[in-house]
Design a protein that fits this description.
The complex is a heterodimer of chains A (225) and B (343). Chain A has 225 residues and is of the alpha/beta class. Chain A contains 6 helices and 10 strands. Chain B contains 11 helices and 10 strands. The chains are: A alpha/beta (225), B alpha+beta (343).
Chain lengths: 225, 343
């Protein structure tokens, strides 16, 4: 089942009088329960397409269809609402809030998404997700006391606690060593399947590609294979 | 607003510094305001304690109390037409005690009225500060312009004029000391302000400004108070701006995960209110404590009305300062924050 469609998306940056076309018409369909990996050399436009799809920057042309609606025609508030409720994000750095404990990070995401309103529901959801990412024992820890791998697991927990439909992961293993990278990818793969997520991941690490269901290669603003 | 509180708990030092500065500025503002009010009372308590009404000065007095002389016919007619009206005069002078020690006073006399102390010829009622200087009821005082003697009949609280204690004397005694028959002003209490020919009318506030030095003194002190209030607002804006700059990454990520910009503003407002309320509570407690331990003779008068009014202004100014600094949050692009790396 198709959950998310990117249709002829273009992106042009203007630097003074020079116009640079980063995306030259990208077409991509993401499927539920699958990890789609975007690979390609630096400057190929893979991170740009991910951030446009995630509603973090606007496209210069084309359509992004999510649940039958074109996101390029939505207001900033509508896009913010989608980011809060239907999208989850895992970044290269964990980007956890430094003054919140692991449990509070997850509670914040539930508050932002307004998906679980009662205290009891929130506690249950937090407990479940921490078990899933194997971090229950560190729920009272602050990010500064976590290892890189633990931080990224918490970031993944934060990205999925509100049960998003699409998970965007931009180089999620870039700051981790090989062992931890594999652990994180196994977790992403398991969560994508069990929670029926639609995952779009950007990576330049070829060792992570076996975990993807589909691999899309980009070069010079185009999808080449 | 749990996130705002959590940040304050985790970054105690940062918020403690901001709170200390707000505390110091507000405490200084309260102290200077207390001194301004104290000096104002010391300068014109006699006039400030009168009820709301209208003052009348000679129209040729150039709006200056000291130059005013009310025509006797005008005075008689006004007092006859307005039963509550009183004519009065105030002049600086001095009295000598039994040991021939001079005490500066402001001699006050008036026609029969409940608004001023009524005394008989040869009697004098003094402000209580003179009791502290050793004068007692029954003491005899003299003045080198007065042929007789004054017997002290009593003391009254908070009756000062031009930083001198007031001395109420009978009109004939006053006329002998100052060699004048006319009174300087007429006061009619109440909202009605009848038009009287030959005189100019003033509200209570306008009349205070007709007292030499009063407005100049008050203007200087009030200017210091309001400068401090404005400076505290600027401090808020600068501090929150600096904190916001440090937190651009955090705000960007919070925006990326879908937090509303209004929620981020609420976070700043919450922190601003907590800091200001705690700082003000401490300032109020200490400034009220200061009014108890202030050195004897220091004109310090800080009412709770003034304290709460200034506190309200501090909160409003702090809110504006924090909000102005928060405008940069609106401009933060989530993408830019993500690309900056770890917070």
């Amino acid at each position: 089942m198709s959950a998310f469609t990117i249709d002829e998306v273009k992106k042009t940056f203007t630097n003074g009088e020079i116009e640079e076309e980063i995306l030259k018409g990208v077409n991509l369909t993401l499927k539920e329960g699958e990890i789609t990996a975007l690979v390609g050399p630096s400057g190929s436009g893979k991170s740009t397409i991910l951030t446009i799809a995630a509603g973090l920057q606007s496209a210069s042309g084309g359509e992004i269809i999510f649940e039958g609606k074109d996101m390029t025609k939505m207001s900033q508030e509508e896009i913010r609402h989608i980011r809060a409720t239907d999208f989850g994000f895992v970044f290269q750095s964990s980007h956890l809030v430094p003054f919140l404990t692991v449990e509070e990070q997850l509670q914040l995401m539930l508050d932002v998404s307004e998906t679980k309103t009662s205290k009891k529901e929130q506690s249950k959801a937090i407990e479940e997700i921490l078990k899933l990412v194997d971090m229950e024992h560190r729920k009272d820890a602050y990010p500064s006391s976590l290892s890189g791998g633990e931080r990224q697991r918490v970031a993944i927990a934060r990205a999925i606690i509100h049960r998003p439909k699409i998970l965007f992961a931009d180089e999620p293993t870039a700051s981790l060593d090989t062992k931890r990278s594999k652990d994180v990818m196994e977790l992403l793969q398991e969560l994508t399947r069990t929670l029926h997520l639609t995952t779009l991941m950007v990576t330049h690490d070829e060792e992570m590609l076996p975990y993807a269901d589909r691999i899309i290669t980009m070069r010079d603003g185009y999808i080449v294979e | 607003m749990k996130i705002a509180w959590k940040e304050m708990k985790k970054s105690k030092a940062k918020f403690l510094i901001l709170g200390s500065i707000i505390f110091l500025v507000s405490f200084l503002t309260f102290i200077i305001s207390g001194l301004a009010n104290g000096l104002s009372q010391d300068n014109a308590a006699l006039i400030k304690d009168l009820p709301a009404g209208q003052f009348y000065l000679d129209e040729d007095a150039n709006q200056t109390y000291n130059l005013s002389k009310i025509d006797e016919d005008v005075q008689k007619k006004t007092l006859a037409d307005n039963p509550d009206a009183t004519a009065f005069s105030i002049q600086m002078g001095f009295v000598n005690d039994a040991e021939d020690k001079q005490h500066s006073v402001a001699f006050v006399t008036s026609t029969d009225s409940d608004l001023f102390q009524n005394v008989r010829e040869g009697e004098i009622i003094l402000d209580r500060t003179l009791e502290d200087e050793g004068i007692k009821v029954g003491d005899v005082l003299t003045n080198n312009q007065f042929s007789g003697e004054f017997v002290v009949k009593g003391f009254v609280d908070q009756q000062k004029y031009s930083h001198a204690p007031v001395a109420f004397i009978q009109m004939k005694n006053y006329q002998e000391i100052y060699r004048v028959m006319e009174m300087q002003a007429i006061f009619i209490p109440g909202k009605d302000a009848p038009t009287i020919s030959g005189v100019e009318s003033f509200s209570n506030k306008e009349f205070l400004n007709a007292i030499p030095s009063y407005s100049a003194e008050q203007m200087s002190l009030n200017m210091i108070v309001w400068f401090l209030v404005i400076i505290s607002g600027m401090l808020f804006a600068i501090f929150f701006y600096m904190m916001n700059v440090q937190k651009i990454g955090l705000y960007g990520i919070l925006k990326a995960i879908g937090m509303k910009t209004l929620s981020l503003f609420r976070m700043i407002w919450y922190q601003m209110i907590v800091i200001t309320v705690v700082a003000l509570a401490l300032s109020i407690a200490l400034s009220q404590g200061f009014s108890i331990v202030a050195p004897e003779g220091m004109p310090f008068h800080l009412t709770l009305d003034t304290v709460f009014m200034l506190s309200g202004v501090f909160l409003v100014v702090g809110f504006i300062g924090a909000t102005i600094s928060g405008f940069q949050i609106k401009k933060i692009e989530p993408l830019q924050a993500i690309q900056q790396g770890e917070m």
